[in-house]
Write a structure and sequence with these properties.
The chain has one domain: outer membrane lipoprotein receptor (LolB), chain A (Clam), CATH 2.50.20. It is built from three helices and eleven strands. The chain has an eleven-stranded antiparallel sheet, covered by helices on one side. It is globular and about 50 Å long.
Length: about 190
């Protein structure tokens, strides 16, 4: 008899917990649906090296970031190609966007489709995260628990270094100049 009561209580608790997770997921999805662009400052850590700067993301798949470092690095994607430009020595590195983790991070339709079918990976006092796995790539994507806005992500670079990207001072759906997503002239 005690065993039956424990099982019953377990199923009641599960039924109470799952709807709250569903509503959290719904709120994040609805927020993403209503988001056209993001403007923010960032802190990026690769291994033990930290860089700061600011970015603009325009869905789908466009990004423009300026790093506040000695190399005066700029990252730009027009939705197909990703260019990393080192302005201090005028070097450019060009990558097909689809071969980078940013391809998934900058695609809100993809993120929404993943959130719909994934379970929440972790919830803290201020963050909700989902673990996206596509082919051999794992991306932990973070959302703010209060605002449901994108808060950052964590992945590995091509050298298996842990890359953490934290979004700060986020503004959404601002007026932006679309010309910034034009790729810089390549040398």
């Amino acid at each position: 008899m005690l065993k039956k009561k424990i099982i019953l209580i377990f199923f009641i608790l599960i039924s109470l917990i799952n709807p709250s997770y569903a509503s959290v997921k719904e709120k994040i999805i609805n927020n993403l649906i209503g988001t056209d662009n993001l403007i923010f400052d960032f802190k990026q850590t690769i291994s033990k090296k930290t860089e700061k700067g600011n970015c603009i993301i325009k869905y789908p798949k466009k990004i423009y970031c300026v790093y506040k470092n000695r190399q005066k690095k700029i990252i730009v994607s027009n939705g197909k190609t990703l260019v990393v430009k080192n302005r201090s020595n005028n070097q450019n590195y060009v990558y097909p966007l689809k071969k980078t983790p940013l391809s998934m991070i900058l695609d809100k339709k993809y993120i929404i489709s993943q959130i719909e079918k994934l379970r929440i990976n972790n919830i803290t006092d201020d963050t909700i995260d989902f673990l996206l796995i596509d082919k051999n790539l794992k991306i932990n994507i973070f959302f703010d628990k209060k605002t449901n806005n994108l808060k950052g992500w964590q992945t590995e670079d091509m050298y298996q270094n842990k890359v953490s990207f934290i979004i700060l001072n986020l503004k959404t759906n601002q007026k932006i100049d679309r010309k910034i997503f034009k790729l810089p002239k390549l040398n």
